[in-house]
Write a sequence for this structure.
């Protein structure tokens, strides 16, 4: 499919697969959505090229969000288990909630258990490991709040 065309068809296919997709959601065709969790995306949200959504529990993306290219959003991880054969041991799944009006910039990573409050900005390359309050700009690895936007 053309990368920035056929948005209606993509919405239809995701709804058919069980996702809750709002009106006018635009998902580029190079986006990978993987997993058997619950995915909800609000109205008028854009998800950019080559982004990955790994949905093993609940991922909720609000309305009017802009998710730039190559953003990773994933809610599965592992408990570190040095006593077992594999250090990446027991599976852990933690929900992710992204509020309305959020802008997640290019090459950012949203890790399990995070809530990003409404109208936040995650700067390019940010690695969000902890929740971010609304109207904040967060940056870095790990991402920390650099500025209140209100």
């Amino acid at each position: 499919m053309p990368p920035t065309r056929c948005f209606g068809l993509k919405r239809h296919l995701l709804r058919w697969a069980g996702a809750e997709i709002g009106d006018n959601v635009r998902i580029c065709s190079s986006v990978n959505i993987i997993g058997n969790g619950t995915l909800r995306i609000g109205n008028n949200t854009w998800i950019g090229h080559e982004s990955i959504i790994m949905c093993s529990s609940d991922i909720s993306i609000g309305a009017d969000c802009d998710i730039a290219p190559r953003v990773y959003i994933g809610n599965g991880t592992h408990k570190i288990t040095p006593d077992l054969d594999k250090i990446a041991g027991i599976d852990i799944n933690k929900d992710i909630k992204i509020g309305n009006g959020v802008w997640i910039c290019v090459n950012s990573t949203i890790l399990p258990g995070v809530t990003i409050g409404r109208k936040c900005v995650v700067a390019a390359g940010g690695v969000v490991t902890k929740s971010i309050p609304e109207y904040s700009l967060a940056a870095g690895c790990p991402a920390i709040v650099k500025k209140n936007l209100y």
